[in-house]
Amino acid sequence: MQAVIRTRSAATRRWQHTVAALLAVLVAAAPTLVGCRESPGEPVRIRIATGSPTAVYHAIGQSLAGILNRELPGVRAEVVVTAASAENVRLVGAGQAELGFTQADVLAADPGPDPPVVAVARVYDDLLHLVTRADAPVRSLTDLPGRRVSVGAPGSGTEITVNRLLAAAGLDRVRRDRLGLDDSVVALREGRIDAFFFSGGLPVSAVAELARVTPIRIVDLGEWTEPLRRGNPEVYVSRDVPRSVYGVEPVTTVANPNYLVVRANLPESLIREVTRLLMERRAELSAAHPAAGRISARAAIVTTPLPLHPGAADWYRASKP
């Protein structure tokens, strides 16, 4: 215990020693860091682009914001509710957020030599859910043509993955609604749609709550991983959803990695500390959502196609994951 306390104290002292220099850097870089710092007397602002309030990105983002606020003097972190992955990448790239969560399949296969958005870590895998009522006739992906299906909100990673999936399956007669997770749950419960897709880490709390009040089925999508991999060989894998997660029949589905991304021009010292806390406070993050328990320093460095931010890379080199 004393060793842990000494380690934490040493890290805090290192941050305190660098925070004044960091603030000076941010002030000097103000023309390119619009929105990160409001005035010389204000704390460093870190906006974390997440997703729906009932989904995984938001739960982990809220916990991470609390950790940063508690442990980094001079930092003010807050979460931003968004449509999720695609919007998060856009916000970070545009300087309207400093950090964001995204699925890997949202990213350009070739981000170029000097991308505006880079990676802090690979965090966990998203699993694609196809949810329907237990008494509905939707038992496979090929049952969807002619039915009304929510494919995810505009700007979400879910919509991108689902559009690729439906194209791979040759299904162009699906009646697509573009609803977010919370609206999809309500629409399914009220019978306004026949099924909905959502991509998220296990468990997705909105799906778990729906399963407690409405008999549901999660449709097996395991056979579609390989067709999707033909165009995206480094992204998609198969993962299981066991019975214990939602209390329904176990299935296999399509999964792809999630990354925590950051604006490339943020200072190395700041992102080094963000990376350290992301890794060292995994137990606290997993208390906010079990998906965070899958974060590991060894897997975190695999962020294809994005390079790591130099501050993140520096922390991983020093920790030798």
From TrEMBL:
Source organism, top-level taxon: Bacteria
One Pfam family named in its UniProt record: NMT1_3
Matching InterPro entries: TRAP_TAXI (IPR011852)
Name used for this protein in its record: TRAP transporter solute receptor, TAXI family
Organism: Micromonospora nigra
